[in-house]
Design a protein that fits this description.
Elements lengths: L6 H17 L1 E3 L8 E3 L10 E6 L2 E6 H9 L9 E5 L12 E5 H13 L23 H9 L1
Antiparallel strand pairs: 1-2, 3-4, 5-6
The protein binds zinc ion (2 copies).
The site of one zinc ion (ZN) has 7 residues, from loops.
């Protein structure tokens, strides 16, 4: 599935997909979390999903990964890296709540949720738990710095 996150796909479908994503993306009205939630299909694990055919292959794309990729300056995504939710809301598509990071960092975040506080993930960003909601000004820049 990872092979779809490459520059030819981005160049071909990028703008079109961003448009269809924005149609199903709405701001959560009921909370202060600032999450932007998905109003369309979810996969069996509860993550927003978009079905797409590219070069005769069918893909079920996780929308947070797709959106992060299309909006970021990255040419491609490393299959070993997840696009994690800092806010732990699976349906959230607020770019400021998404972090591109190694899978192991993502799984560490599960501990934070169950303990109700963030133990820190340096050089990656902290979890956004209800008590510590904040926004980051340039998340892409921050993610790229973390990867280098
Ligand atoms: Zn969120
Ligand atoms: Zn954490």
């Amino acid at each position: 599935m990872s092979d779809i996150y490459n520059s030819s796909f981005k160049a071909f479908y990028g703008q079109k997909l961003l448009k269809s994503i924005s149609k199903f993306r709405t701001k959560n009205s009921d909370s202060s979390s600032n999450c932007t939630v998905w109003k369309s299909g979810l996969d069996k694990d509860g993550y927003p999903i978009l079905k797409k055919t590219f070069k005769l292959k069918r893909y079920n794309l996780r929308v947070q990964r797709l959106l992060y990729y299309l909006e970021s300056p990255l040419e491609w995504l490393d299959p070993k890296f997840h696009v994690s939710h800092l806010c732990h809301n699976k349906q959230c598509l607020n770019l400021e709540h998404l972090s591109y990071e190694p899978a192991v960092v993502n799984s560490q975040r599960n501990t934070c949720v169950s303990e109700g506080r963030c133990f820190g993930h340096k050089p990656f960003r902290n979890c956004l738990l209800q008590a510590s909601m904040r926004t980051t000004r340039n998340h892409f820049e921050q993610d790229e710095r973390s990867i280098k």
